UniProtKB/TrEMBL annotation:
SUPFAM superfamilies: Band 7/SPFH domain (SSF117892). The chain crosses the membrane at residues 7-23. This is Peptidase. Coiled coil: none annotated. InterPro entries: Band_7, Band_7/SPFH_dom_sf, Prohibitin. Residues 24-190 form the Band domain. One of its GO terms (cellular component) is membrane. It is a single-pass membrane protein. It comes from the Bacteria. Pfam families: Band_7 (PF01145). PANTHER family: PROHIBITIN, PROHIBITIN 1. Signal peptide: none annotated.
Length: 272
């Protein structure tokens, strides 16, 4: 009876040690995640091997795994203050869609760490936005150049962050806020320009209509001129005789013809 507890104690201790080692030697990586292995006695962060994938992983108990979210993520920079080309303060709302480069996850962890969002992405997007917006006037920011500005911010930020092992998927300029007085002035100018374009359109339309009337009138005049030139005295006399005959044959007409006119046509005195 005295020997049993002495034998059982080492077994219990061994079981505890095994459980602890198993707990230290296993890691569960969730969906959309990947792990960076840190070898305590083998060179630190592993950068020359693929990151650990999803699921249950076994590692040496003295090593450690840093888990990263590899899905697309979004950071929203609200009311970011920038200056236009003429020095006016503009407020931007910008969304950045990003994710770590899976193939270079070890290098990202080694050089930037888990807080790479605040170390790389946020400072770069702010710096690039200020640089890009500073090339444009408030009017361009408000109206015609929104898409161009968005594309420039994306391309320039991408060039800066991708060498730092971060994949930039998109940059969206969600809102541009101008000082109220500048916004009102721009809206008035745009309205005046629109009214001017409408007035010019009406003038062009009226000019085209007038030209159409002139062309139609000229065509009729030319036709009449050609017709007049083709009508000889003999043709007119024949036409007059035909008309007189038809009038005399009408049941509702009484025609008295006396002599003839200077042109040789009959003279019509009445048709009652």
């Amino acid at each position: 009876m005295d020997k049993l507890p002495k034998i059982g104690l080492p077994i219990i201790i061994a079981i505890v040690i095994i459980v602890v080692l198993l707990a230290k030697s296993s890691v569960n990586i969730g969906y959309g995640e990947a792990g960076v292995l840190f070898k305590t006695f083998g060179g630190g962060v592993v950068t020359d091997e693929p990151a650990l994938g999803e699921g249950f992983q076994i590692i040496a108990p003295w090593n450690k795994v840093y888990i990263y979210n590899t899905k697309q993520q979004e950071v929203f920079e609200k009311k970011m203050q920038v200056l236009s080309s003429n020095g006016l303060e503009i407020s931007l709302d910008v969304s950045v869609l990003y994710q770590p480069q899976l193939a270079n996850l070890g290098l990202l962890h080694q050089t930037k760490g888990e807080n790479y969002l605040d170390i790389v992405i946020v400072p770069e997007i702010r710096a690039v936005a200020r640089s890009v917006v500073g090339r444009y006037t408030p009017e361009q920011l408000y109206s015609t150049k929104r898409d161009a500005i968005q594309n420039e911010i994306y391309e320039e930020t991408k060039r800066k962050v991708e060498p730092q092992y971060i994949q930039l998927n998109s940059v969206l300029v969600r809102d541009v806020t101008l000082p109220p007085t500048i916004k009102q002035a721009i809206e008035r100018k745009l309205k005046q320009e629109q009214e001017s374009l409408e007035y010019e359109f009406r003038l062009v339309t009226a000019a085209k209509e007038a030209q159409k009337v002139i062309i139609e009138a000229q065509g009729k005049a030319d036709a009449n001129k050609i017709l007049s030139a083709s009508l000889t005295d003999k043709i007119l006399q024949d036409k007059g005789i035909e008309a007189t005959v038809k009038l005399s044959e009408s049941a509702n007409s009484k025609v008295i013809v006396i002599g003839s006119g200077d042109s040789g046509m009959p003279i019509i005195l009445g048709n009652q």
